[in-house]
Design brief:
The chain is α/β, with parallel strands linked by helices. It has 2 domains: 130 residues, no CATH class; 168 residues, Alpha-Beta Horseshoe (Leucine-rich repeat, LRR (right-handed beta-alpha superhelix)), CATH 3.80.10. It is 36% helix and 16% strand. The strands form 3 sheets. The chain has a 7-stranded mixed beta sheet. Strands 1-2-3-5 form a 4-stranded parallel beta sheet, with no helix packed on it. A two-stranded parallel ribbon has the order 8-10. The radius of gyration is 24 Å and the shape is elongated.
Length: 332
């Protein structure tokens, strides 16, 4: 006689062989069977089942990113189509539990907990406990679902998957919030980097890294977005170049300098600042630190450690921000 777990695994395999039946059975499917069925459909790229399962997902969070080790546009389209079905259901005031689609590429306890169970099926209470703790939403309003993702952009242009996601999310801003806690640029983009903030919630970004040689104008045009990152804790900037033809254009350079430096007054949560090869700030570093000190003096109660990498020399200046403001140590 087969064990109950074996029978359940056989049932999952049978469902995967008959997509129409699998989709129709979702309403009555026990919630503990959703994770293995979703993983099976994901591995087999059965997009019709994935689409239906996203709309019927019985848990608060769906950590798809932990399964997607290689970007797959077809699967992403199916998942987002499922979110569209979910949004339509909520418009009709139907009960839906899914609140967060997690696209972050990281190990997630949700799938590990199910895979580690001895009988192959994870009890519903354990699955619920493995859901990640999140402090949401960032933006109040009538959004019905949150998408979480971190970006490390190593190419000059967005890949097809990100282009598709950007277009999809931009059309659904009234019912969607997209949270990106870590954003990294590893190349000088041929697109306008500020356009990413058309869909990503700027206040959700906690770490920003510019690890490519940006020119001064690109950095200046992106600067207004930097000022909107009110919860930014770490900022790393590597190599900002000034085109040779700009050396005689003092007015344009000063506009760029002002546009960039003024944004630091908005970064009242900043704790780490790394600057390497940002030579135009050599003579303006005191101004930048003064703006950060001003924010610290407003009583946010956090310490600030600014690590400034200039001309190959590492200088660390520790500034203590307290409600009883005291002047920071002089000199770098």
């Amino acid at each position: 006689m087969r064990s109950p777990s074996s029978l359940k695994l056989l049932a999952i395999r049978s469902l995967l062989k008959d997509e129409a039946f699998a989709i129709s059975a979702l309403k009555a499917l026990p919630m503990e069977l959703f994770p293995p069925l979703f993983q099976g459909a994901f591995d087999g790229k059965q997009t019709n089942i994935l689409r239906a399962m996203v709309a019927a997902w019985p848990f608060r969070c769906l950590p798809v990113g932990a399964l997607m080790k290689i970007p797959d546009l077809e699967i992403m389209q199916a998942v987002l189509d499922g979110l569209d079905l979910l949004i339509k259901q909520k418009d009709r005031q139907r009960s839906c539990k899914l609140e967060v689609l997690d696209l972050r590429d990281a190990e997630n306890n949700f799938w590990q907990v199910w895979a580690a169970t001895e009988d192959g099926v994870c009890p519903p209470d354990i699955i619920g406990e493995s859901q990640p703790a999140m402090h949401l939403p960032i933006r109040q309003g009538n959004q019905v679902v949150t998408v979480m993702m971190n970006l490390s952009l190593q190419s000059v242009d967005l890949c097809l998957l990100l282009k598709y996601f950007h277009s999809w999310a931009k059309q659904r801003k009234d019912v969607l919030q997209v949270i990106c806690e870590k954003l990294e640029f590893g190349a000088l983009p041929v697109y306008k980097p500020l356009m990413l903030l058309e869909v990503f919630e700027p206040r959700s970004i906690q770490e920003l890294e510019l690890n490519a040689c940006w020119d001064l104008r690109t950095f200046a045009t992106f600067a207004p977005g930097l000022g909107k990152m009110r919860n930014l804790q770490k900022l790393l900037v590597n190599n900002i170049s000034i085109p040779s033809e700009w050396f005689s254009n003092i007015e344009l350079k000063e506009w760029c300098f002002t546009e960039i430096i003024s944004q630091f007054s908005q970064l009242n949560k900043l704790q780490q600042l790394y600057l390497n090869g940002v030579f135009f700030l050599n003579e303006r570093l005191d101004q930048v630190l003064s703006l950060l000190e001003l924010q610290g003096s407003k009583g946010h109660g956090k310490d600030f450690l600014g690590a400034c990498l200039l001309d190959g020399w590492k200088c660390i200046r520790a500034l203590k921000f307290r409600q009883s403001w005291k002047q920071a140590p002089a000199g770098l």
